Amino acid sequence: MINTGYDPLQHTSVYHGKEDSDDSDGEGGLGNVNRQIMRPPGHSGKAKRGHLCFDASFECGNLGRVDLINEFEYDLFIRPDTCSPRLRFWFNFTVDNVKLDQRVIFNIVNISKERNLFMEKMTPIVKSSSRPKWQRIPKKHVYYHKSTVHQGHYIFSFSFGFDKEEDIFQFALAPPYSYSKLQAFLPVLDKKASHLKESFSRELLANSVQSRRVDLITIGSLDPAPKSKAKRRIVFIMARIHPGETPASFVCQGLLELLISSNSIASILRDNVTFKVIPMLNPDGVFLGNYRSTVMGTDLNRSWHVANQWLHPTSKAVIDILTILDKSKDFQLDFVIDIHAHSSLTGCFVYGNTYGDVYRYERHILFPKLLATTADDYAAGNTMFNSDATKAGTARRYLCSLLSDKVNCYSFEISIYGYKLKGSDTIIPYTEESYMRCGRNLVRTFFEYYTNTGAIAFHITAEVSSKRTRSRTAQIRRRNQKHGRNRTPLTGRIQAQLHFTNLNINYDSETSLEDCTYSYRYTSPRKAFDKISEQYSLRKSAKSNIEQKHNFRSDSPIPTTYVVLPEPSLTVIDFNVMSRDDIDKVSKVNKIQKKSSQKFDFLQHIHQIIHTLSSSSLR
Ligand SMILES: [Zn+2]
């Protein structure tokens, strides 16, 4: 994780210097409570310790009203989205002026979406000024129920005991990720990507209605594709169109950090594919602490089909750039992925489209299928393809009709709460780190996609050196004897029996393969390749450590045995242009080839993937 130098506890009030107020008039607090002190009835004068002070008048803050029920119980009202009173789910507020061991019950009484993960025992997160790491409130302290005293509405109650008088306690639905945090992160990312030179850029795509930046990050060269006639592949990713879906930003950060790293997968991807990423598409809504809306009260992901410059300048800018990329002769836009967080389902999954054209549909379902092989938290049962009329204004629906048939548009969803592992009903809550891991898994899925479809071809050729002769060995032996050296073991002098073309293997110390969830369901040359490249990397670093003319004469622990792979038969398939007949034809050819050689058949493997795709048993 890149350290941005941003203090996560610094819930910088946009209204510094204000005195504590008894009521929240909404002025200057954007409708949020503004250091509101809850005094018992009949009490006047200076607030005593234990008269809780509520505040949400800071960036991403949301708490609209507090009612004191009794000494121990408070009703809390989420502030509705700006100009959209029916949307109430995101909350984020602080409490201070607490008394040691004070115990309270908070009821959140106006959640607009009844069916949500609170039904699955999702709990809010809390941190305090002396303990800045977010923690989940234990399940036994929360209760989501229909309340007769609240007109039969579902209310979410949780109890909490304050254990430090001086601390400010912050409560939120999910880890906040503010506009300021992103603006602090991007320069750090830029600096860290300095080794990429022209292959990294950050530019201003558009300004929001309230003049906040919508950044566009480009990773990967924009030079013509390596294969002279092929178009350069483009993956377009965007996040935070819905401001309350903060996990989307952590996924996006994980993805960006891996893409700029020197990890071999990232390096190969950058050489072949260009990623264009918009980390925050609705910065006004994020700043204001809205759940889904912009400052104008619009749900951007229901308005793509009616986007205009005045109400939706950020969506308009995205449509413009996508149209240019789609029509370009030099680029091939492969993916548009819109990252969301889901409020009622667990795990990570994909929403896609259905098409009358069965071949287009088969191409469309390949990416989710590959995602299932790379992410342990993938929820196959939640992945869905539809063409509902109600979703006409979503990015995946509108953009797939706007752009050419080759473009695959998806909503990528990750639970706002947690995930279930295969065969288990226990929900493991996500953390900031596991959200970022999910972003890294997305990168791996792109790698899988492009290697499996042949857009990225890498070759590992095994070659055993046969030039060395007895006379040379004898010569070296004589020379060693002359200089009094011990005879070097023969195995230590053999050149690496591997030749990598177009590969720059250099593992990033910070982003290693080990800290990513990446499980293979099958044995592939790539798996072995990863193992070998690691050995190669070790050997390379060992080589650089010793200043000797003759390599591999060090006492360093250089691996002496290498797995020699058969040369993989990498059939180049482009699913974006192939029909079923083509696949069958190539498959037949491959079957014939296979009889005559021991080559690994990538095509059959992919073919198998497509045809075993069934609704629920992906893993
Ligand atoms: Zn969403």
From TrEMBL:
Cofactor: Zn(2+)
Chain coiled-coil ranges: none
Region (Disordered): 13-44
Molecular function GO labels: metallocarboxypeptidase activity; zinc ion binding
A biological-process GO annotation: proteolysis
Classification via SUPFAM superfamilies: Zn-dependent exopeptidases (SSF53187)
Domain Peptidase M14, chain residue ranges per copy: 175-445
Record CDD domains: M14_AGBL4_like
Catalytic-site annotation from UniProt: 413 (proton donor/acceptor)
InterPro entries: Cytosolic_carboxypeptidase, Pepdidase_M14_N, Peptidase_M14
Gene3D superfamilies, per database record: 2.60.40.3120, Zn peptidases
Family recorded in the similarity comment: Belongs to the peptidase M14 family.
Matching PANTHER family: CYTOSOLIC CARBOXYPEPTIDASE, CYTOSOLIC CARBOXYPEPTIDASE 6
Name of the molecule in the record: Peptidase M14 domain-containing protein
